[in-house]
Amino acid sequence: MKLFLICVVILAALVVLWLAAGAICFRIAIVRASASAPSDYIKGVRAKYRDTLTAGEAWIRSQVTERVSITSSDGLQLSARLYLHPEAKGILLFFHGYRSNADIDASGAAEYYYNLGYSLLLPDQRSHGQSQGRFITFGIREKDDCVLWSRWCARRFGDDCPQILSGLSMGATTVLMAAGQKLPDSVRCIIADCGFSSPADILRKVIRSDYHVPPIIILPAIAFYAKHRAGFSIDAYSTYAAMETNTLPVLFVHGLADAFVPCEMTEACYARCTAPKRLVLVEGAGHGLSFLVDTPRLKKELQDFLSRYVS
After folding, report:
1. pLDDT reported for residue 211
2. Is the CB of residue 266 less than 8 Å from the CB of residue 167?
3. From CA 51, how far away is CA 41, in angstroms rounded?
4. Each residue of 12-35: pLDDT tens digit?
5. Which residues touch 120 (CB under 8 Å, ≥6 apart)?
6. What's the confidence (pLDDT) of residue 22?
7. Is this structure's pTM higher than 0.70?
8. What pLDDT shows up at residue 11?
9. Where would you tag: which of 11, 41, 266, 299 has the fewest CB atoms within 10 A of its CB?
């Protein structure tokens, strides 16, 4: 009897420790945090492109903008900046990445898209910037926000105004998942740069590579808190599932030196895509750096893709 009680106490202690570890990881990964300054991101491999990133950020902040908002399906006020081109031939919706913002993630290419003749809509994803929200859902709810922003654009600019859905990192996951939903007919194509396949997949990868813990130990605890505190399942959807029903042309981009989101996720997503598609892999490009590492090639790929499916 005494041995049984000791075993029960040990088991209870292990469960408490497991739940505590899960709660800490849940807070680190999913709960909203204070945003870092853009300059905090221009370090490491990005430092090489400091002048380009700084100039791109300055361009974004210097343009005349209109702050617009929508209400999400779960009642959050979501905010975006609208940059109107005087002779727009369409509008590009750009979705930034995890714990980032458009000033950072669009700084390399925003001016380029604008100069091609596109208006820009730069949303703050839920739980980022001026958008409300406490939890980041890695594309699960963000995909629905993307659909609502697209519908807002269709109402504002009409069905004849072509839309392009674009995103970087989690933003790429957002637009790829949105492609599996009912979008306005004015959405013509998708540009997805270094997106991950699902919340479970990217959490599993980070737990293994950054914390050196077997994911089978801690991932179920994170999933428990995600379900019961944030109200979503980390296995609810994936870009793979979306691509099996997507009908929109997709330009997939990924850096072969990406140490955060494995390039294999984009390659697998590309393989599952049943719509017109193009895969661009950039040698030597780290996470989110493909446009900066090989700007001439990316500009040509983007212009060719947009000319084919938008113009």
Report:
1. 83
2. no
3. 13
4. 666 677 778 789 989 999 999 876
5. 81, 82, 83, 85, 91, 92, 94, 106, 110, 113, 114
6. 81
7. yes
8. 67
9. 11
Residue type, 48: K
List the structure tokens of 109: 């290419």
Rg (the chain; Cα; Å): 20
* pLDDT digits 0-9 by tens, 53-76: 999 999 999 999 999 999 999 999
Find the length of the chain.
311
